[in-house]
Structure formats: C-alpha cells, structure tokens
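[Q] Does anyone have a clean structure-token version of this?
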Amino acid sequence: MRTLTIKDIANMAGVSPTVVSFVINNKKGVSKATREKVLSVIERTNYTPSISSRRLIMKKSFNIGIIVVNDSSPFTNLFYYEIAQSILNRSKMYGYNMVFTDIQRSSHRIKLPSIIENKDTDGIIFFQDTSYQTLKEIENRGIPCVVIDAHPGKDLYSMVIADYEHAAVTAMQHLAKMRHRKIAFICSSFLPNFYTQVFNGFRMVMSQNRLPINSGWIQMDAVDEKSASVCMARILDSGDIPTAVFCATDVFAIGAMKCAKARGYRVPEDISFIGIDDVLLAQYVEPALTTVRIDKAEMGNMAMDMVIQRINGKAPECIKLRSDDLIIRDSVISREQADG
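[A] Here you go.
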C-alpha cells in the first residue's frame, strides 16, 4: 500500500498542502472549520507526516545541532551526558532530530562544523563557554543559538546557567553546620568566571563564620579527576591537614577522595568531602558523595524550549537555575561525630 503524503491529505480535505502543514504544526491562519476538516482526514487515514514532507513545506531542516568543544564530549563528561539525554527526550516533543558535533578551541580562526556550513540545522545548543566571536558568526548566518552552563561576566547571549555561587554557599554552609573549621578548596582557574563564582561562595561562608583561609589549601589547577588528585596531594603535603574539602565539582571531589584514601586517611572520619553537580557517579563512589545538585534534566529542557522559541522568532530571557538542593550522603560527618 502506498504511503500517504501531505498532498494526498490536502486533496482529500479539499485544501492546499500548505494548509495541511499549518494544521499539522498547529500554526495560526487556518479557520476552525478547515482545521477540523483536515484533522478529520488525518485521524481517519492514520496519517503521520514524513520528516521530508515537513522540511519541504516548512523550509526547515528539523535538526538541532548540539555542539561541544572537542575536549568536553557529552559521552565522556557525566555532567553533559545527563543534559544531552534530557535534550534528546525533549526534542521528540517538538519533532526535531539532534545532531551532535564538536568545535575546536581556537583564538585565531573559527572552523565551524559542516552542519552549520551546510545550513543543515535550524538552531544550535552549545555546551559550556563559547567565544562571542563564534556565536556572532553563527547568528550572522541566521541560526539561533543557546548556550548551556556558560560562565560569562555578563549576559551576551541566550543562556541557561546554574548559580554556582549559591551552590558553593549551600555546600559551605553544610560544612560549617557540621562544625568543620579547617576547610580546603579545590577548583579550576581555567574558567575564570566559574572559579570566581565558586570561590566567592567559599570565601563568603568562611568570612561569615570567622574561619581562617589557609593559602596552601586553595588549589586551582583541577580540570579532571586526575588533576584533582594532584591538588589533594598538595594539600596533604602542606604540613597541616584539613577536616573537610570543598570541591567545585563532583569529579574533583571523587579524585580528591581517592588521593586521601590512598594516603591512608579515612573518609569521612579524618577528612570530609563535598562537591557540586550530583552527577550519576556521585551516589556510587565509596563513601557516597554529599553534593549540591544541579538539575541537569531541567537545564536541558529549558535550553530546548529556548532554542525553539528563538527559531520561532521570540527572544526569551536568560535563565538561571535554582542551585541550593543539598544531597546529603556519607562523605561528610560532623566533627563531634568524627572526634567521638
């Protein structure tokens, strides 16, 4: 049996293919009576429009490009993996395909992926900070962009971001509540605005509780689990041992915990650890990691909604997620409990 096309439905309903397309995509400009007539034919024939038909009529690719820098793949980075999964699920609601690709970090020349060069995408979602020059180049081509988990100094483009300063305050307040006074800090200075946000939260709670900051315990060179372990080794070699370590990400905390345990320290009895993100692995490490949850599924949903709005000609405001959801597990205990 031959597969029905939009033209077939249009002939049965006595309307043009464009009217059928408007009905299928719930667009304005069709009278109630005509809309009901088209929907009746669609229901009676169990018609499902092909993606090629929708592309032809709507002059859209029905692709959304998910672009990451070449060293932050959503298939290896747990934080972005959960966001990507959320976007993929959300895209089905809008009838879009997801196309994953990467872009090279470069301050000299912009090399755009073929999906952009060939105009085979209706919108782009970037993971993490992206140069303003790159975003401007893409938008000059008429392709709407949204950036997830950026750390800009100001709002230069459409973004869905987390409030990392608030997350840091939440984590530090929990350590202070647990009577920790000797607290170390592991972060990354490679994203300056991210570092500033997290360090501001750390410093604020330390100041509020009149706790001294040990310069040897401030480590800023972490980029992954391995480098976070090196940072932790420096802290342990500083001549004084903290009772707790606040890490800017769960991955940093996992690396730091491994280092402490390899050196013979008990976690959390000797040293407690807390992170930010609540990636999937956080609940499975030993001990399970106490952390501040960033709602990655909601971040993906909002980004997908935002890029669709931009494709439809709207200008959505930037979104900052609530970031104070403390997930208490086993990697932090009170000093009274540890000393008892």
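[Q] Thanks! Anything notable?
[A] The mean pLDDT is 87.
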